[in-house]
Amino acid sequence: MIFGRSERGKPPVEPVTLKILVAGGFGVGKTTLVGAVSEIRPLRTEELLTEAGRPVDDTSGVEAKNTTTVAMDFGRITLREDLVLYLFGTPGQERFWFMWDELSEGALGAVVLADTRRLEDCFAAIDYFERRAIPFLVGVNCFEGAARYPADDVRRALDLDDHVPLLMCDARDRESVKETLIGVVQHAMAQAAQRRQTVTT
Amino acid sequence: MSADGQGRSHWFDDEAGPVVRPYAMTRGRTTSAAQHRLDLIAVVVTEPHADDPEDDPTLSPEHVDIVELCRDTSQTVAELSAELDLPIGVVRVLVGDLVESELVHVNRPVPPAELPDESILRDVINGLRAL
Questions:
Q1: Do A14 and B46 touch (CB under 8 A)?
Q2: ipTM of the complex
Q3: Shortest distance, CA B35 to any CA of chain A (angstroms)
Q4: Number of C-alpha atoms within 13 angstroms, CB side, residue B51?
Q5: A114, CA 20 to 30 Å: which among A20, A92, B30, B109?
Q6: How big is the A-B interface in CB pairs under 8 Å?
Q7: CATH 3.40.630.40: does it fit domain A13-200?
Q8: What digits encode the pLDDT tens for the residues A151-168?
């Protein structure tokens, strides 16, 4: 019997993986936020779409149809050798909703990044996570030169439910992004606890 | 990319898209029979006995790449897609093939229903704080 390469080294660690989504309008700083905490330069992954191919998954359709590419940037944070958190920037365009479905499946929670100069850009994302009861918070990215508004005003403008946290952040700043992500996880914990309570009572 | 200088003289470049249509690598398949759709953060691990995949005539170079990449460090589907510059759908099919031929195995992420495991979430918070 020949022992090959399998004999060298230990088998790789098989970590538990978790993901948090980063949503918001185009140019609001999603990739910047991911890059601020990621241990790797944000990577890009792509999916090809065909109009007909998706629901049917019929192989004969793939070649002929026009394809579109949806790109997503993501980053990685190794919290422990066996616990790794991934951050996915959601594709900005709303016509890629189905991609969101796939991304949000099993997601720990989400950050919706907002820019006070164009708040309406994040309405769709807020609506999306609300409907699916995915824990999320709104991070107001404090761009230089943008007017600062009190949190309550932003909250009102977004028509945000009371239980949804809103905080000011700076997508370029590692500490600020860390706090934002911690906020998401805390919110996810609170929401889970609340759900358990409603089940038992 | 231009270090060799030769690539530039070709009529095609990255803008023209891949020379081989991505789904040609999967022989036109967009799904894998063996696999429920793999999550982007499903972890792919090479089996210890998957020794010389390049000697296996049934495997494409992309299959071999995946086996090699996941040998020393496990990789998620998203990472493989980025690393190999292949669409996620293609990676899913290729990984499905490799699972079928028992060259790799896949660890699915914690299912959503079980997610609110407080101890894991607390570990995440502590881990983030310690960064």
A1: no
A2: 0.83
A3: 14
A4: 8
A5: B109
A6: 150
A7: no
A8: 999 999 999 999 999 999
